[in-house]
Design goal:
Arc Repressor Mutant, subunit A; binds zinc ion; alpha+beta; 3-stranded mixed β-sheet; about 160 residues; flat; about 40% helix; single chain
């Protein structure tokens, strides 16, 4: 079957998104991943393809205030939480409870088709890093009371 260059690019984008290497990527992240196979592709083409895939319901666009849009190949009902420290977007599975909200919306004369929630917070990894950074200070100043730490092989943290 003959595939146009456009179709090939689109398939490559979808495949990159469905691989584990790209998790809720921004267009720029898709761009740098796709460029490995399509060195001449432009960021504009990436945007066009992402918008096309969104319009076909193949992927979702997640708008985050004051941050670049993210794209998601998981199109089942789920919500997101955005880590304001590392900028990663995490899935919160399942439906968001919209009962109260839906009632209010319908009272306002709307028909609610869907609702996705993007929350902001700090992920567990960043929290752990934050906590260890805090722990370091008193340990440093505690002088001799520091517990011996096993020397790491290459002096990495
Ligand atoms: Zn984080
Ligand atoms: Zn998601």
């Amino acid at each position: 079957m003959l595939q146009t260059r456009q179709t090939k690019q689109r398939i490559a984008i979808l495949e990159a998104m469905r691989s584990n290497s790209l998790d809720h990527p921004s267009a720029a992240e898709v761009y740098s991943s796709i460029r490995k196979s399509f060195p001449k592709i432009s960021l504009g083409t990436i945007y066009r393809n992402l918008n096309f895939l969104c319009s076909k319901g193949e992927i979702l666009k997640i708008e985050i205030p004051n941050a670049p849009d993210r794209y998601d190949h998981r199109i089942s009902e789920h919500s997101h939480i955005f880590c304001s420290k590392c900028g990663r977007l995490f899935d919160i599975p399942g439906e968001f409870s919209v009962l109260d909200f839906a009632e209010k919306v319908e009272r306002g004369g709307f028909i609610l088709h869907s609702l996705t929630v993007t929350a902001r917070g700090v992920c567990s990894e960043c929290r752990r890093l934050g906590e260890s950074a805090l722990e370091c200070r008193p340990r440093k100043s505690a002088g001799r009371k520091i517990l011996p730490i096993k020397p790491s092989k290459k002096g990495k943290i």
